[in-house]
Amino acid sequence: MNVSGCNSNPCQNGGLCQETDENYVCICPPKQQGEYCEKHVLLNCDYVTCPNGGTCVETAESFKCVCPPGYTGPYCDMPHTP
Q1: Which residues form each disulfide bond in the chain (predicted)?
Q2: What's the angle, vertex CA 17, arms to CA 13 and CA 20, rounded to 5?
Q3: Closest to 13 (Cα-Cα) out of 34, 59, 4, 23
């Protein structure tokens, strides 16, 4: 008798259980990670600092830093000369 690992609904926080040859894996929604999607990814402006005068803006999936003139990069930490 083959019992699916997904029968116990192991995936948390909206994760989708996908059977594999060995057992199962959880496919996590955005902002969740971990074997069972149990960890919340802290990718929002409460936990991010954009240096050099950058402004953090939250997006649907994460965040982005809006950089002032003279800086670039994901965190506005790279000097930029036009």
Answers
A1: 28-37, 67-76
A2: 150
A3: 34
pLDDT band for position 1 (50/70/90)?
A: very low
Other CB atoms within 10 A of residue 9 CB = 9
Determine if the pTM surpasses 0.85.
no
- Segment 34-78, tens digit of pLDDT: 999 998 876 778 878 899 999 999 887 778 999 999 999 999 999
> Hunting for tokens 């936990």 — which residue is that?
47
Which residues constitute the domain of residue 30?
Answer: 5-40
Please name every residue paired with 56 in a beta bridge, in sequence order, or none if there are none.
65
Cα separation, 26 vs 21, whole angstroms = 14
* 27 touches 36 (CB < 8 A): no
79 and 47 co-located in one domain: yes
